DNA sequence: GATGAATGAGAATTCATTCAT
DNA sequence: TATGAATGAATTCTCATTCAT
């Protein structure tokens, strides 16, 4: 996959084609890199233009303001973060496969998000950093979460609680613990302490085990 | 406790007295508030001056640069975050009390950090936000952690693993999971979703239970 | 010659074309005037902008720093000050013409520099003033002098000493006295006491005579 | 002579006692050093205070403004520069000693000013630099020159012209050439090229010879 | 007299944005 | 569509000066 393909892919939501001119792609790429490195507020549009190899004015031909450029990066990414739950097969499988378990579910989730974070690390970094300052980003996330993830996640939990596999905690608590634990691992792994020697597979499995023991119904 | 006492208290490390002039305290207070709200890079020194009710020049009389002002806020806070481990009694108790357990330890840790985050929320927010951009902050944290926390934390874990209370996971993994889980709860509670209806006591207890079940030695 | 031509001409070294945009020329003109009047340190970029009729930001688009603006004025001028020695004909004539004498040489030098100082007075003023504070300017002058002037000047002196026309003083001493005397006249005439009634031709001739009598070989 | 004595001496004009408090002397000393190094405009009062070891406010207790501090340095120095002509003996000797000649006069002048410049170099530097920007300094110099030096200098020249020792040039021209030549040597020696290897005595003698040959009446 | 905290105007420089080409 | 010169408001920081102690 060449340099621009990953961008095209990220920005393409639900198979809708996105046309990115050459310059536009370079601007986005440059902006993502710099926002991730220095933060939105500390990155100047002229730096972005320089790194993208375009004129300063060109950025504003495509994005009316600097903020709009940020949102152009952030909005499709929000959808992609929610992606597994948007895939019809993903949740269906959980219910339909007779062998499946909550453990399999979070293992699939963990693996899927691990690959995602690894691939789109700079974007994740932007998220982590800018969510705090831009309430509109935070709201978008919450909306997408509530509309596309929450309900499905809850059905999964209900299902496994009915099967007696999960402790009788409120679904919200289980959701929070699951997400917190997975996100906590990924943030530590890729952002907080990326330089440690990580045995990813083992550490992920341990994290899953911890979570499962923590959440399973006590016999 | 009046407005300035909490600041005085925060900046006081290890009982050393800190003399803060009236103006200086107001500058720090204003800076903490604004950095927390809008981020360091997006906050101008003139805004800080205005909110603090001082002339802009006054800020630079006390702090040579804007960055130095940030560090003046951040450095003592790092120590305070590490505080429970710096308190002699805290760790000692864990070993000496015959009734103690890892569960009691993390319960104490959770309660202690819960109060801390609640009290100094704006500072925590600054941390969460600026660590990403300022490698010197990150390094300070890592140094303090390695010098003051890691060893003690490890001894606690060794102790309870020998007592057969904790699973035979590497200490590092247990430390990471413990911190991630507690920090994950506190961040969700106070920063990500502060507007939800939280039954703090119950949720903390559940989080502790989840962690304990996840980490305890399987019989 | 209109207002901008003299600037274009000054900045053009050795026939290399210099493209100065309209605004850029106005900035340089304004800067030269103000630096000459008030000195570099006492002139603010906002004043320069105002006099040049451009926005303050425009200055910094063309010159990264105020210092760079100074150097853009000063560097080509240094070459121009050395100019007569850079002209092939100038020194050649001295040796080839059978009628030439050291007196003719310094007369040519005096006339040439007189016209130069008269024409570019503000720049000379800047030089006189700023050399003291900016060692880089001083070094540039010394380098240009050593590389382009000193050797040629010395050859002229050797030549006329061999012809028995000049006293047997060290060449360095003769160079210093010649330059000091000419420069001393020009500074007094144009900078220290420009308001006196000067009969330029007569005073120059007297200066030349004084110098020649002072330097000629005693019979 | 200790550190402060030279200052006391410089500031004392015509035997009038000057009372300089300890702090005041330190301020003047520091100001002289810094103005000489970086120029008046580029030196801040806080730097002066720091170098003088006094509080910022103390400077303004003694000198209402920064400019006044400059003038406090510059004004007595102007008198001292004119000093030899102020000494009754100096000019009288020229006329009364039967052995004296214009050469002896300029030799005395040269030696006297050589010692002065050597001793008070920083002050000379301030002069050289600030005269250009402060017309009041320039005016002071001209006034002192016209009132105290010019007439006496002219009498000296008239005297030696009548004795047939000096060429029949206008007195003004001879004065200018004499001063230019002496000042030119001293500036080159101490300010422009102080790092060269100078054989001061020889070079001064040569300068005097050059000047004398240049100015003497042709037989 | 001396201090040094405080000031606010002003310094150099940066920046998002516009617009004529 | 792309450019990049131009803008002027805003930013960080400095400075001469004041004034309460």
Multimeric state: homotetramer
- What is the CA-CA span between the terminal residues of chain A? 49 Å
Estimated helix fraction of chain A: over 70%
Number of helices of chain A: 12
Strand content of chain A: under 5%
Q: How would you describe the shape of chain A?
A: elongated
Contiguous runs where pLDDT drops below 50 for at least 5 residues of chain A? none
What is the succession of H and E elements of chain A?
A: HHHHHHHHHHHH
Major sheet details of chain A: none
Average pLDDT level of chain A? 88
Overall SS class of chain A:
mainly alpha
The greatest interface here is:
A-B, 32 and 32 residues
| Strand runs of chain A, count | 0
Radius of gyration of CA atoms of chain A, rounded to a whole number: 19 Å
Protein name (chains A, B, C, D): Helix-turn-helix domain containing protein
Keywords (chains A, B, C, D): DNA-binding
InterPro entries (chains A, B, C, D): Homeodomain-like_sf (IPR009057), HTH-type_TetR-like_transc_reg (IPR050109), HTH_TetR (IPR001647), Tet_transcr_reg_TetR-rel_C_sf (IPR036271)
Organism (chains A, B, C, D): Anoxybacteroides rupiense
């Amino acid at each position: 996959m060449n340099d621009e393909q990953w961008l095209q892919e990220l920005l393409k939501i639900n198979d809708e084609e996105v046309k990115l001119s050459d310059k536009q792609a370079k601007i986005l790429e440059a902006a993502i890199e710099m926002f991730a490195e220095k933060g939105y507020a500390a990155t100047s549009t002229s730096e972005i233009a320089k790194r993208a190899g375009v004129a300063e004015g060109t950025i504003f031909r495509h994005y009316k303001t600097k903020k709009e450029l940020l949102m152009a990066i952030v909005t499709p990414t929000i959808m992609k973060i929610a992606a597994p739950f948007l895939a019809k097969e993903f949740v269906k499988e959980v219910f339909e496969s007779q062998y499946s378990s909550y453990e399999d579910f979070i293992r699939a989730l963990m693996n899927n998000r691990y690959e995602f974070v690894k691939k789109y690390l700079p974007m994740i970094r932007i998220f982590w950093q800018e969510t705090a300052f831009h309430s509109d980003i935070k709201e978008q996330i919450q909306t997408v979460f509530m509309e596309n993830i929450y309900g499905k996640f809850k059905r999964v939990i209900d299902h496994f609680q009915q099967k007696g596999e999960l402790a009788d905690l409120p679904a919200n608590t289980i959701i929070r613990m699951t997400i917190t634990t997975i996100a906590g691992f990924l943030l530590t792994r890729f952002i907080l302490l990326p330089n440690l020697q990580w045995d990813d597979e083992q550490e992920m499995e341990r994290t899953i085990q911890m979570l499962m023991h923590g959440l399973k119904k006590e016999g």
